[in-house]
Every structure is written in structure tokens, then in C-alpha cells.
Amino acid sequence: MNLDENRFTSSAELQKPIPTSRGKSTTTWFALYGFLLISLALFAYVTGVLLGPLRLLLLDPPLFRRFNEDLVWYSGIPLVTGTMLISWDLFRNVTRIRQAKFVRSDPPANRFLTVALTAYNDERSISGAVQDFRAHPLVRRVIVISNNSQDRTMELAEQAGAIVFNETRQGYGACVHRALREALKFEDTELTVLCEGDLTFRALDLDKFLTYIPHADVVNGSRIVEQLQERDTQLSLYMHYGNLFAGKVLEMKHLGMVSLTDVGTTYKLCRNSTLRELMPLLDPRINLEFNAYFLDTALKAGVRIIECPVSFYPRVGTSKGGNVNNRIATRLGLRMLFGIFVDWKGFSHD
Questions:
Q1: CATH fold for the domain made of 113-347
Q2: What are the C-alpha distances in Å from 81 to residues 33, 236, 253?
Q3: Full-prediction pTM beyond 0.85?
């Protein structure tokens, strides 16, 4: 039987070196602000439509009718403008980025892991989290960074076999920054896992991360997979789709470079070589927005990021972050969006 040679890759092509360099950093600002304008236009249009029944109830007063009609009519201006801005970036930048893309295959020579867990008053969960990660055959050590915990978090983490530090500067960003700094001090591992010590994430997903890491510099976990969410987690329906929206906004900022569905996940696997380049760029004063800030900063630097679906479980203990309730999650989400659209420096002193 004759085979169509064009359908198969020759052995000579397979032996060619596969490129491992990062893509050039490109921020698609036109697409980002075009997306913002389209979102505002749709909001204005829907608001205008919903005001229609109210007009009838008020017997259609002239001023209200004029406002209602103008709101619907003029919503077309930001809609058309936003579409033009997105089209500009799509044809000018994204097409060029996509034409230059390639599938990277660069397996790390050393697959052993250093796991860094952040913790704040997590005495109910920290022992289980440390034991879970230490039981994985590729984990060389577990580091726990307590952020001025007032309970027995540090004591119990040490008893469970972790290397324990206390970060005295209060704030999630400071705690993460310290965790990454401590992990980079170990030269027998080339990969660092960042996670939390509240048992919302498990070591079982490390094998998934390791499957993805040959193709990336950072593998970022995504909780936005319905089948991988345990019941009664803190990720409400509102937060689920809020994270998805924020992920797509950040993706729009770096269109053609990344696919994102979740910007709030702590759980990620990083190459140490990449972290050493990123650390001077990261401001530890950024607080609860740090994960979205980390991704944005990395993408600006041309870091290749791939998402990996991870399992998400109910938190053991009390939440101290942005998932306490929908009100706090909304505030955090708006701060993330401000950082993406405008600047992260406004939060560097919180």
C-alpha cells in the first residue's frame, strides 16, 4: 500500500532540534481596550432595553424616553469602536504572533520538586498538606512560609516534616515572594511548586503539571473545570464565572500568547531558571491580587505559560483571602481588572 508522504513527518524532521526560546513579549492594548468598550456597550444596551418596561409604568415621560432611546442608540458607538480596535490588533499583531508559534518540547533534566506552601493561621490543615506533598515520590522537600500566624501553624508544619519560615511582612504577595525566594536557594531541584497549605489543592495533580512542563516555563493550575470541583468549595457560581471573565480579560491583553480561564489560582509549577529572571520584576507589596499580577508580569516578559486543570477541594479551616464571600470577591476582582487595564502599582502599598 502506498502512503501519502505529506501526511507524515520524516525521521530527518523529527531529529531537528525543537526551539525552546520564549516568544517575544507583545501586549495587545488595542484588543484589551476594545474588549472594554464592547463590554460597556453591551451593558448600556441591555440597561436601555430593561428600562423599557419602566417607561411604560411611568407613562412614557418625554425626558425619560429621550434618555432611554439615546442610551440604546449611542451604545453602538463604543461597540463599533471596540470592534475596530480588536480587529486592528488581530490583523496587525496576533496574526504575526500566531505565524511564529511552535510547539515547544523541552523536558527538564531534573524532575525533582521543591514545594513551597503559603500559610496563615492554618493549623487545622497544614499537617495534612505537608504530608500529602511529601508523600509524592518526586518531592525533595516541602517549605512552609507562615505569614505571622497566631496559631500552631509553624509548629505543626515542622512536626510534619516541613522546612518552616515566618514572613514578618504582612500580605499575601510578601508571603508568596518569600516562598519563591526560599525555594530558589536549593540547587538540587530545577522545578518549584507554589501552593497553599489549606488542602484546597492536592499533590495528586503534580503529575499533570509535570506532563505540561516540557511545553512551558510556568504551568498554572485552573480550577474552572466543573468535573474537577468538589462540592461545597468556596468557589461559588459567581466566583467561578468571575474568574473565567478575568482570565479572558488577561488573555485579551496578551492575545495570541496564552489561553487563560483562571487568574486566581495559587497552584503552579515553575522552572527555576524562569523564576530567577522574574523575581526582580515582582513587587512583594502587591497583596491578594498577586497571582493575576504574577501572570501578567510573566507574560510581559515573554514567559510561556500553559494552564493545567486541577482538582479543587473545600478549604480546611477559615478563609482569609478573596473567597470569603461574593462581596469581597467582587472587590478583589475589580482590583485585578484595574491592575490589568491600568497599573498594578496602585496596590503596591496595601
A1: Spore Coat Polysaccharide Biosynthesis Protein SpsA; Chain A (3.90.550)
A2: 10, 34, 17
A3: yes
